[in-house]
């Protein structure tokens, strides 16, 4: 056994062939979980006595916000793998994750804003969470923009890796400073996060959807990675054989 | 535990008084997930087509 | 003459030969600051209240625009390549370059902020706080924007990408500096925040040059 499971990831071909199957599994699982969780949350979870039906947005907002942050960390892990083991697939993953991460960050910002309208009467408040999410969106955009600006894919990957590593070191500092800034300027009356404990009929669908969005992200990232691998490996023998067979 | 929370299906889609906020967000979520999936498929297809074209060009050169 | 001294002398000579590069950011700062009363109102109460924050942001922008092409000329005339063959760590040379840049480009910018402060009728003690925060925070800002410049070195159409990429990383610095200014305005103790800001600058100045040198290595020769 040993390190074989890890070194396999160095082979784009091995990944491309396996990822197709994983993608299928992830896609089906995500679809099942998301339909179950969303329907449950929208139709069967009890109404929130304070916020009314608007709270049902959390079944999308919370999982997406979790993902947005987790994906940046995942990108940083890929950057480490890229620099330590020079694994090209890590760079491919970084490229895919940056786009998905930005999409999920944007989705969480928009859903948060729309949820805010009926809850606090305004789309946007400079709350600590919203602000650090906005900055996260800018960090993702920076990674995407940097890659787009550099032509050579290897060079672009390494530049993005440096940026992601610097970003991930800064992220906790940004988060804490934004929280501190928030208490500095606003009295703590505007707390958005204090909520009474949820009954099981509320949090079980939330849990299902959190899982569902994670698996959906895996599905999307695998799909995007396969396309990028194929394009980057276009000169290799196995890709030529694969395409001419198709 | 699994009890339909609305009086009718129409009330469910109306989701008084917050349907205007809830439904567009779920629509947008669907759009994002679907859009990204479609984009992946398109990108994959484009890569395959590009490689095929390159192969064909090489064959005509060899002849 | 040691290598370090020769490098700094070279920077000095280059900057004396092209003084426009030093004056442009100062010009920019004063221009931005004069736009504020025009856009807002000549009401000096409001101006003095938001003036210090405005000057801070304007200085930040001037610094960023100024640092955008920090390594460009050294890159295109091959000086950066020579750096690789010197018997000094690349990060050390990068650090020297950043110090020179701070001395010749950022310091003049800081020295001109009192004029901007008088234009916006910022109270004197807040103006002092502003100067101190700028002196303490700009080393970190210079390092980060230097990293932005180094990362976008290889792309010809990067535009202001380096600025856009690095700006989110300035959030903690801006927040801390704004905290100092707010405390200076109501006369409370600013020292703990200044210490934090200083710590940030020290850490940035030691760690970021390493990242910058990695980015430079990336753009020279690509593979190594």
Q: Biggest interface: chains and residue counts? A: A-B, 45 and 36 residues
Please estimate the helix content of chain C: over 70%
Question: What number of structural domains do the residues of chain C give?
Answer: 1
What is the mean predicted local confidence, pLDDT of chain C? Answer: 89
Low-confidence stretches of chain C: none
Alpha carbon gap, first and last residue of chain C: 31 Å
Q: Count the helices of chain C. How many?
A: 10
Oligomer: heterotrimer
Shape of chain C: globular
The Rg value of chain B, from CA coordinates, equals 24 Å
Largest sheet of chain C: none
The fraction of residues assigned to DSSP E strands of chain C is under 5%
- Biggest sheet architecture of chain B: none
Shape of chain B: rod-shaped
Instruction: Determine Rg of chain C (CA atoms, Å).
Output: 18 Å
In total, how many beta strands of chain C? 0
Structural class of chain B: mainly alpha
Number of strands of chain B: 0
User: Could you estimate the helical fraction of the residues of chain B in percent?
Assistant: over 70%
Q: Outline the low-pLDDT stretches of chain B.
A: none
How large a portion of the residues of chain B is in β-strands, by DSSP E? under 5%
Index terms:
heterotrimer, A: about 250 residues, mainly alpha, C: mainly alpha, globular
Write the layout of secondary structure elements.
The complex is a heterotrimer of chains A (about 250), B (about 60) and C (about 220).
Chain A (H helix, E strand, L loop, with lengths): L3 H4 L4 H33 L13 H28 L2 H33 L7 H22 L3 H33 L14 H33 L4 H9 L1
Helix pairs in contact in A: 2-7, 3-4, 3-6, 3-7, 4-5, 4-6, 4-7, 5-6
Chain B lengths: L8 H6 L4 H44 L1
Chain C lengths: L2 H15 L2 H20 L4 H24 L4 H5 L2 H6 L5 H30 L4 H28 L9 H6 L4 H15 L5 H29 L5
């Amino acid at each position: 056994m040993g390190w074989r499971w890890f070194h396999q990831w160095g082979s784009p071909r091995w990944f491309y062939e396996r990822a197709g199957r994983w993608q299928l599994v992830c896609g089906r699982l995500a679809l099942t979980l998301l339909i179950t969780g969303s329907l449950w949350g929208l139709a069967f979870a009890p109404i929130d006595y304070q916020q009314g039906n608007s709270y049902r947005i959390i079944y999308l907002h919370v999982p997406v916000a979790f993902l947005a942050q987790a994906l940046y960390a995942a990108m940083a892990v890929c950057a480490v793998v890229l620099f330590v083991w020079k694994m090209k697939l890590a760079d491919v993953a970084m490229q895919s994750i940056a786009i998905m991460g930005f999409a999920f960050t944007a989705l969480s910002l928009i859903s948060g804003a729309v949820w805010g309208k009926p809850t606090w009467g305004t789309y946007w408040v400079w709350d600590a969470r919203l602000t650090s999410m906005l900055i996260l969106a800018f960090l993702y955009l920076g990674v995407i923009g940097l890659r787009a600006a550099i032509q050579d894919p290897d060079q672009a990957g390494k530049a993005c890796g440096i940026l992601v590593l610097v970003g991930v070191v800064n992220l906790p500092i940004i988060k804490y400073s934004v929280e501190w800034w928030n208490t500095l300027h606003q009295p703590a009356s505007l707390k958005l996060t204090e909520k009474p404990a949820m009954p099981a009929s509320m949090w079980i669908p939330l849990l299902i959807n959190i899982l569902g969005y994670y698996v959906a992200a895996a599905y999307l990232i695998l799909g995007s990675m396969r396309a990028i691998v194929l394009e980057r490996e276009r000169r290799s023998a196995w890709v030529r054989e694969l395409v001419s067979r198709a | 535990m699994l009890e339909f929370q609305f009086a009718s299906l129409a009330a469910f889609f109306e989701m008084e008084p917050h349907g205007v906020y809830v439904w567009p967000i779920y629509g947008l979520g669907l759009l994002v997930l679907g859009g990204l999936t479609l984009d992946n498929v398109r990108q994959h297809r484009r890569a395959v087509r590009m490689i095929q074209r390159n192969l064909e060009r090489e064959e005509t050169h060899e002849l | 003459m040691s290598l370090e001294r020769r490098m700094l002398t070279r920077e000095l000579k280059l900057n004396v030969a092209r003084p426009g590069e030093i004056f442009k950011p100062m010009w920019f700062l004063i221009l931005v600051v004069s736009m504020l009363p025009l856009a807002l109102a000549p009401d000096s109460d409001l101006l003095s209240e938001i003036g210090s924050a405005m000057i801070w942001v304007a200085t930040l922008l001037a610094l960023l625009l100024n640092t955008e092409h920090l390594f460009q000329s050294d890159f295109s005339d091959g000086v950066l390549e020579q750096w690789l063959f010197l018997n000094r760590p690349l990060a050390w040379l990068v650090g020297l370059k950043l110090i020179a840049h701070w001395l010749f480009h950022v310091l003049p910018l800081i020295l001109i902020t009192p004029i901007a402060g008088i234009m916006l009728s910022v109270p004197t003690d807040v103006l002092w706080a502003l100067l101190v925060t700028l002196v303490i925070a700009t080393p970190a800002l210079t390092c980060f924007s230097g990293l932005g410049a180094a990362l976008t070195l290889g792309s010809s159409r990067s535009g202001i990408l380096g600025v856009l990429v690095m700006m989110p990383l300035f959030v903690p610095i801006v927040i801390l500096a704004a905290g100092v200014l707010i405390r200076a305005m109501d006369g409370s103790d600013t020292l703990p925040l200044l210490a934090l800001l200083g710590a940030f600058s020290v850490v940035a100045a030691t760690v970021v040059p390493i990242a910058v040198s990695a980015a430079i290595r990336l753009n020279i020769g690509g593979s190594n």
